[in-house]
Write a structure and sequence with these properties.
Blueprint lengths: L6 H6 L5 H15 L6 E5 L5 H8 L3 E6 L2 H7 L7 E5 L10 E6 L9 H14 E12 L1 H6 L4 E6 L2 E9 L3 E9 L3 E9 L3 H10 L2 E7 L14 E8 L3
Parallel strand pairs: 1-2, 1-4, 2-3, 4-5
Antiparallel strand pairs: 5-11, 6-7, 7-8, 8-9, 10-11
Bound molecules: S-adenosylmethionine (SAM).
S-adenosylmethionine binds next to loops.
Amino acid sequence: MDWFDSDYYHILYKHRDYNEARNFIDKIIKYLNIKKGSKILDLACGIGRHSIYLEKIGFKVVGTDKSLNNINKAKANQNQSLSFLQMEMIEDTNNRYDGIFNLFTSFGYVNHDYNLKTIKNIERQLKDDGIIVVDFMNTLFVKNNLVIEETKVIDDLIFKIKRRSDGKHIYKEIKFNDKKDYLFREKVMDLSINDFKNYFKRYNLKIVKTFGDYNLNEFDIQNSKRLIMIIKKSQP
Ligand SMILES: C[S@@+](CC[C@H](N)C(=O)[O-])C[C@H]1O[C@@H](n2cnc3c(N)ncnc32)[C@H](O)[C@@H]1O
């Protein structure tokens, strides 16, 4: 089973909860000034923590994720203006959106080609005056501050986490015992802001603003934990 598909992911990251999602969404929606009633795609939505809140505050939301377990959990919240679909990021929902959000490092798990297909798919589904938000980790900060080994005790489970970087990917290994031994691996591409700029340029998209954390402080390559990019279609 995939790490993101497993219940243990949600135990380890239980602090990454609805409160964190709500705080960030409130701030980013205020900054972007997107009209209530607009259509938002939450691409790689997980169990839907951002989608659910976006719908609650008045948007029409579609959340997609490749994890069937996540989508099944999210579907418990479905209603007329909130739906969830299990699909890959490169698949088309056959809809057009005012906003497409890809949040909390939900990009770069496959390869360069897949990234390009994803951006093409995002561009295709975005209205001409639409806005994209991509929230990735600041890989330079992560590498400079790499916590190589860490133990976390959550819900009586002892998670032993190891991290490493080889310049191309950042790897995480998660080991624990819950009646039996478990080992999960996560591998995400080491993408810089320039890599993203190059991806976006190919599809006539442009980064118009960056933030470095969920409180919307300015992005600073040395000190920011996050790389949050606001992207729009380039005007001809
Ligand atoms: C770190 S989680 C973040 C989930 C959610 N955005 C949140 O903030 O709670 C990354 C998510 O990306 C999804 N994902 C990874 N690769 C994907 C792909 N190729 N297509 C669709 N979803 C993918 C995983 O299943 C997982 O739910």
